[in-house]
Amino acid sequence: MKKITEEQIIEAIKNLFLDAGKFLPEDVYCAFENSLKVEESPLGRAVLEQLIENKKIAENDGMALCQDTGFAVVFVEWGTRVIFDGKDLFEAVNEGVRRAYKDGYYRKSIVNDPLFDRKNTGDNTPCLLHFEFVPGENVRIIAAPKGGGSENMSAIKMLRPADGVEGVKRFVIETVEKAGGNPCPPIIVGVGIGGTFEKSAYLAKKALLREIGEHNKDDRYANLERELLTEINKLGIGPMGFGGRVTALAVNIEYYPCHIASLPVAVNIQCHSARHKEVIL
């Protein structure tokens, strides 16, 4: 059996969030450059050029890509033949977050109570940890800092099975249209379909981790992704909401079996700063 120590987890989490905050994924960068080829709005093109320049400055100067360095969202896939050698895995993950946000001089954005006190915790913890067991002898960790502006534009709806594909399309497009320029487009749209209320939201967030251009393996859902992307880019919202042809870079759908009486659908919107990094231990 393979052993993973508490300190290994702490260091992995720290390094992942330090990198995620400064280095834009290459697929997102390429999508910016490709968008310049199709964006006709002069203001939209100027925005895309600034996003490309921002990426280079953050990378060269070791600075955060965005002032909103996000809620620390962590996905862990833990192999069933791996033993954790430590006291508390959740606390180890939080300690990694603390060190990253301190060492990176990242903004701390988490409040201790959502409604009454709303006092800043001072270290960007607690994180949000999604954990699942998978076969094997490895541990895969994905750090995905999630900004508040795009998260606020997300939505979930319990559709009726009779609403079908058209109902899903209508809800997704309406959600993006209502969001407008608030989530700092060009955006990535994660869609979770099926499961339960909470499962669909999880699927929508996890869908954001997929590389741009990588479609669902089921052709039916892949075609729906393409159709939704086309319709969303017809809305004319454009980069940063200033108008144009490029509102979204991708629509990614994940699905799960659901109850015969249900059709849960969640939309999780990601801003242009689509930050995530992963490591396998």
Shape: globular
Indicate the percent of residues in helices: 25-40%
Mean pLDDT: 97
- pLDDT < 50 runs, ≥5 residues: none
Strand content: 15-25%
Tally of strands? 10
What's the order of the H and E elements? Answer: EHHHEEHEEHEHEHHEEE
- The class by helix and strand makeup works out as alpha/beta
| Largest sheet composition | 4 strands, mixed
- How many helices? The count is 8
Rounded to the nearest angstrom, the radius of gyration is 19 Å
Question: Could you describe the 3D structure shown?
Answer:
This protein folds into two domains: 2-20 and 65-146, no CATH class; 149-276, no CATH class. The protein contains eight helices and ten strands. The model has no long low-confidence stretch (mean pLDDT 97). The protein is α/β, with parallel strands linked by helices and 281 residues long. The strands form three sheets. A four-stranded mixed sheet has the order 4-2-5-10. A four-stranded mixed sheet has the order 6-9-7-8. A two-stranded parallel sheet has the order 1-3. It has helices at residues 6-22, 26-38, 42-61, 89-103, 148-151, 164-179, 197-207, 219-233; strands spanning 2-5, 71-79, 82-85, 128-134, 139-146, 155-159, 187-195, 248-258, 263-270, 277-280. The longest helix has 20 residues, at 42-61.
